[in-house]
Amino acid sequence: MKRLLVTFSLALVATAIVACGGSGSSPAASVGGSSAAPGEGITVVAKDIAFKPTTITAPAGKAFTIAFDNQESVPHNIAISDASGATVFKGEIVTGTKVTYNVNALPAGTYPFKCEVHPTMTGTLTVQ
Hints:
Blueprint: H1 2-20, E1 42-46, E2 51-52, E3 55-58, E4 64-70, E5 75-76, E6 79-81, E7 87-90, E8 94-95, E9 98-103, E10 109-114, E11 122-127
Parallel strand pairs: 1-4, 3-11
Antiparallel strand pairs: 1-2, 4-9, 5-8, 6-7, 6-10, 10-11
């Protein structure tokens, strides 16, 4: 019984850490390929094993948020890479929920993004 209580307590603490922990900061993106104004966030939806929209825009040199809405019962996230393929942002993997990713400021450029669980889910972030 004591082991069960300890195991349950550890699982509860781990869940709280994941829920409260950040995924790093990220720049703002826009919906439908449009630009987000500074201080505004971008919304990206995961549905039918695809991102909507697939093209987002964020301001250069300014942190931004991505409101990520996973509308499926399968896990998804957003991972942003630079031109060399190095990951510059990695969002928490979630299932059937909405989360807000905080992305650190990025220099101007084009950044591919994908779902790490489903690498065929891709998009493009333009930072300008």
